[in-house]
Design a protein that fits this description.
This protein is an alpha/beta fold. It has 12 helices and 20 strands. The strands form 4 sheets. A 7-stranded mixed beta sheet has the order 1-14-13-12-15-10-11, with helices on both faces. A 6-stranded mixed beta sheet has the order 2-17-16-20-18-19, with no helix packed on it. A 4-stranded antiparallel beta sheet has the order 3-9-8-5, with no helix packed on it. Strand 18 and strand 19 form a beta hairpin. The relative contact order is 0.15.
């Protein structure tokens, strides 16, 4: 029986960036000797340490809490010893590193896990440390447990460059994912939306058989999307289904985190497992690795990357964070992207025909090969210059908003104008493509970030 789809939405604007280094459908187990929880993954959270260097921790032991809301705790994903607390500028905590042991002991007891009412579910998620898996719009921060959302979204596909196939990642976790969907659907008086790509029959069959047939679907809706990136971004999906007005809140959860939450309530144990795709032109054999949240990348990269100067990004190349070879997988990331950081001047530069260069404006002859995959590096191909507005943003920005005017309002910190132009519907990642195609090399994501911080304050 074909799965019921409640609504079909076509995204007419956007841009697919075809790069070399897509992951093969191969899974390998990867056990790292260290894991880390990195506070920069959590927007606008000031960590307040609970432990010290040298402390022994179990799975679920609190490492630090959010100073802004002490009920939100960040816990150890593995048992072992806290070997280092890394600090950056102004002594801000950038990582709490744990040397793993082989015990995998846990501090979670059966009495801590309750799932009767929404309040009990939220209390369980707070006390066990899985609450940071739930984020909210506006602002893209950890959800406020004291405020109920008008809807919850789980995006079951990703359209970013070199994005992994989430169905391939989740295909063995149907029961856990179904339980996670069931639990989350109880936390809103509105609907929980599962979003899928159009004509992805394996994913549709899996959702129908493993999820929708096994739980109550009274307030669960399935929305199908067709279009280029950012059709898979949850912000785009929210905009076209349940646009956010001032004072409203929408929650969203990553599919793998949904399965982690499901495991907590189904098997009564904490699960911080994570499958990540190692991708990019500098990776010898791009593939999937079964590991855990916060896994150290050094051993993996030494095996798979020969480039002496790689740019290692936790996440996709448009919105991810540069973590370096000694970094760790981000809390919300299911992809590691590696490209060359060896920036060298190119002979004749822009005067070449550009058969191996990507261009939105058909500057190079490569536009005659629409299916070609490109090898990109970290060069800007020009310096930052005065910001000039044209139609280039609106060609890749699918929201029914005015991107140029909204960006101007963000630059000038005109809060009233920002609100009028729809600032509550966007976060940094929604302007990633605008930044990529910007002829002025403007850091659009940082501008939006700074503007959102003004609103948060």
């Amino acid at each position: 029986m074909r799965m019921r789809v409640d609504r079909f939405i076509r995204i007419t604007k956007g841009l697919d960036i075809k790069l070399k280094g897509s992951p093969q459908l191969i899974r390998t187990a990867y056990t790292s000797p260290k894991v880390a929880i990195t506070p920069p993954d959590f927007k606008w959270i000031t960590p307040q340490l609970i432990i010290e260097e040298g402390a022994t921790v179990r799975v679920g032991d609190s490492l630090f809490i959010a100073k802004e809301n002490p009920k939100i705790s960040f816990v150890a994903p593995a048992s072992g010893t806290v070997t280092e607390i890394v600090r950056g500028e102004k002594r801000r905590i950038t990582a709490v590193i744990i040397e793993k042991d082989k015990k995998n002991s846990s501090s979670i007891t059966l009495e801590m896990i309750k799932e009767g009412s929404p309040e009990e579910i939220i209390d369980t998620m707070l006390v066990t440390g899985v609450w940071p898996m739930v984020r909210q719009r506006p602002f893209g921060t950890i959800a406020n447990p004291d405020q109920r959302p008008k809807a919850i979204y789980i995006s079951c596909f990703d359209t970013a460059p070199l994005a992994p196939d989430l169905h391939y990642i989740l295909q063995d976790k149907g029961a856990q994912f179904a339980q996670g969907v069931k639990i989350l659907s109880q936390l809103t008086k509105g609907n929980l939306y599962l979003t899928i790509p159009v004509d992805h029959k394996p994913l549709e069959d899996w959702l129908q058989k493993e999820v929708l047939e096994k739980i109550d679907t009274t307030n669960i809706k399935v929305i199908s999307f067709k279009g280029k990136h950012p059709a898979g971004n949850v912000g785009t999906q929210i905009h076209f289904v349940t646009p956010i007005q001032k004072g409203e809140v929408v929650w969203y959860v990553d599919p793998q985190h949904t399965a982690n939450i499901g495991t907590l309530f189904l098997q009564k144990q904490l699960d911080f497992s994570r499958t990540v795709a190692l991708t990019g032109s500098e990776v010898k054999n791009p593939q999937y690795y079964d590991t855990m949240i916060g896994a150290a990348l050094l051993d993996l990269l030494e095996e798979q990357v020969d480039n002496e100067y790689p740019r290692v990004v936790s996440g996709n190349l448009l919105t991810g964070r540069n973590v370096g070879k000694d970094g760790f997988t981000g809390f919300y990331d299911h992809q590691i992207s590696v490209i060359s950081d060896d920036v060298q001047r190119e002979f004749l530069g822009w005067m070449t025909p550009g058969l191996n260069k990507f261009s939105l404006s058909r500057t190079f002859l490569s536009f005659l090969m629409p299916k070609k995959e490109y090898v990109m590096d970290t060069r800007l191909h020009g310096g930052e210059r005065a910001l000039m507005f044209s139609d280039v943003y609106s060609r890749v920005f699918p929201f029914r908003l005015l991107p140029d005017q909204l960006l101007k309002a963000c630059i000038t910190k005109d809060l009233d104008l920002m609100e009028a132009l729809g600032i509550y519907e966007v976060i940094e990642e929604d302007f990633a493509l605008c930044e990529f195609v910007c002829p002025s090399k403007t850091n659009c994501q940082q501008i939006v970030h700074d503007a959102l911080w003004e609103l948060v304050k």
